[in-house]
Amino acid sequence: MRWFRRHGCTLLIACLLISAATAVAAAAPATVPLPNISIGVGQSSNPRDVATSLQVILLLTVLTLAPSLLILMTSFTRIVIVLSFVRNALATQQMPPNQVLIGLALFLTFFIMAPVFSQINRDALQPYLSGQVAQDVALQRAERPLREFMLKQFTSDKDLALFVSLAGLPKPNSSDDIPTYVLIPAFALSELKKAFQMGFMIFIPFIVIDMIVASTLMSMGMMMLPPMMISLPFKIILFVLVDGWYLVAKSLITSFH
Known about the structure:
By secondary structure, this protein is mainly α. It is built from ten helices and no strands.
């Protein structure tokens, strides 16, 4: 009691000061800096500043098209379609999930395209960042390895000739005479055809298993039992025994060489 009588007034004043400071801090408006990107604010007499701003806008626009470039100009299309065929042939519904298939397809794409990306980084990106070459020269150097990769994947000139004729271009004498806007859709069409061919070859053994199981059930008089219910474990165990994912990945990688 003596201690409280001596220091009680001091404690009361301290509590009041803390309460007042808290109330003032709560009433004060919070000042949080907001990010802001303004276009058209201010003036510049230097044309380089305007060119730099336009390059930034163009870069942001290209980044929105990056997924399409990754899908149509690399090995991603063939890989993801073949992996989808494998899952459909196994009839495992959503196993593996779409996220797993797309992730596997992306990393296989990075593995296959690593030499191309390394050449682009060595011949185009690093010289441009160090100021050794101009932007247009860097773009031409970056485009060359991708064009060589796409041209090597054509097993037939039919798809390429289709888009050359539809574009109204004369018959090219060499690959340099083929514009990139003609090469990309022809490459995508060729990749779709190869992916479906590989998917057909993958489907054949699983269709044989379904036919054997269905004929066996009918011969035993079990017509009400769904054949898919019986054939699914056999297809899974066959796929595991032959190490199916290893064979699929190996076939996909070697198909690009």
